[in-house]
Amino acid sequence: MRQTSDADAEAWVLTTEPGRALLIEVTATSTYGPTELQRWRRKAAPELVAAAVRLAVGRSRGKAKFTRAEAMWFEPVGLEQATAETVARHKASRFRGSHLLDLCCGIGGDTLALAAEAHVCAVDADQGMCRRTRWNAQVYDVAERVDVIRAQAERIAYPSQWLVHVDPDRRQGNTKRARELLDYSPGLEFLQALPKRVRGGAIKLGPASDFLSHFGAGDCELELISLGGECKEATVWFGALATCRRRATRLPENVSWTDQDGPRNPVVPIASPLAWVFDPDPALGRSGLLDSFAAANGLARCAPGIDFLTGPEPLDSPFLACFEVLEILPLDLKTIGKLVTARKLGPLEIKTKGTDLRPEALRAQWKPRGPHPATLLLMGGKGTSRAILANRRSPAAS
């Protein structure tokens, strides 16, 4: 995390007349080159100019997560780790009508949503983050329902009847995001003990982390949440807030599939691609519910361990991207490149599973110029490598 001195500089930009004037000027500029920086440094110290740039960049990037980003106070790592507003509101709906504790609140992404449901005590060990949460609570008109405390999550005392949300730090000063819960802060011991200390709550974990190894058994509910087709987080619900064992949720459609919706021991056949191939939402796969969903909908897997599904008819579901199969090809890049050129394909959507091929690199290699849009589904695997030329089915076609 950044030092408090950065927060002091940012506070000057946000709360003083010359600081706000500088921020307006910086925000109106699309580039931050030497000429611009030199001009601004005639008006303010370098650290204040740097603070204004951080705020402007943060607000610009924050628009992808928050509806009021243009007035918020962001910090780069805090923004990256912050829960998107749509996801936070989805989670907060379970916390209605209770006193809440939001541990490791960061810039306040979850706090803001929780405060719309109940009074929140937001806690963070970083004073700068505490200041940012207070500011952002004012932006969202919930400041009267938020108390912010600087403390370490492991040391603060709270009533056992409260509900708790915790978003552990997944970096701890490192540039790379931790994938193992043992590297989280607060650590695994604290996180696993939390369900025994309070009557209910939620633990936010990275969707690519080893959450199944540590929370896959017991009475917890594991919810994998996707937003716009990207898996955003694994939420461990415990105590009074757990409703099932597994849940996959897709936002903003707000649809879920749980372990109670399909067969308990699904058997999904393996079949060569049929007339239609489906790319499932990643929340289904990460939650372990893909086979349950496939079996309940009469679908097969295209290959063992490959998360492309197939069936004889189109299937309309928010959890599925639906593709009509035009041609099945060997996974030979030269052959596919010649086909792309000969048929004048483009723009070209490329989806890969079971292979380390990168769509952007393939597009650069093949240079699809069109004018015929198409999709290529590329799947690896021993003995099952193939490419499928397909057309994406629009939801409007249903």
Task: Note down, in words, how this protein is organized.
This is SAM-dependent methyltransferase, tRNA(Uracil-5)-methyltransferase. One of its GO terms (biological process) is 7-methylguanosine cap hypermethylation. It comes from Singulisphaera acidiphila (strain ATCC BAA-1392 / DSM 18658 / VKM B-2454 / MOB10). It holds the Pfam family Methyltransf_15. This protein has about 400 residues and is of the alpha/beta class. The chain folds into 3 domains: about 5-60; about 80-260, Rossmann fold, CATH 3.40.50.150; about 275-395, VC0802-like (2-Layer Sandwich). Helix content is about 30%, strand content about 25%. The chain has helices at about 5-15, 15-25, 35-40, 45-60, 75-80, 85-90, 110-115, 125-140, 190-195, 210-215, 280-285, 290-295, 335-340, 360-365; strands spanning about 100-105, 120-125, 145-150, 165, 200-205, 220-225, 230-240, 245-250, 255-260, 275-280, 300-305, 305-310, 320-330, 345-355, 370-380, 385-390. The radius of gyration is 24 Å and the shape is flat.
Secondary-structure map with pairings?
Layout: H1 4-15, H2 17-27, H3 34-41, H4 46-62, H5 76-81, H6 85-92, E1 100-103, H7 109-115, E2 120-124, H8 127-139, E3 146-150, E4 163-166, H9 188-197, E5 200-205, H10 211-215, E6 221-227, E7 230-239, E8 246-251, E9 255-258, E10 276-280, H11 282-287, H12 290-296, E11 300-303, E12 306-311, E13 320-329, H13 333-342, E14 345-353, H14 359-366, E15 372-379, E16 386-392
Parallel strand pairs: 1-2, 1-4, 2-3, 4-5, 6-8, 14-15
Antiparallel strand pairs: 5-7, 6-7, 8-9, 10-12, 10-13, 11-12, 13-16, 15-16
GO molecular function, one term: methyltransferase activity
Pfam family, one: Methyltransf_15
Keywords: Methyltransferase, Transferase
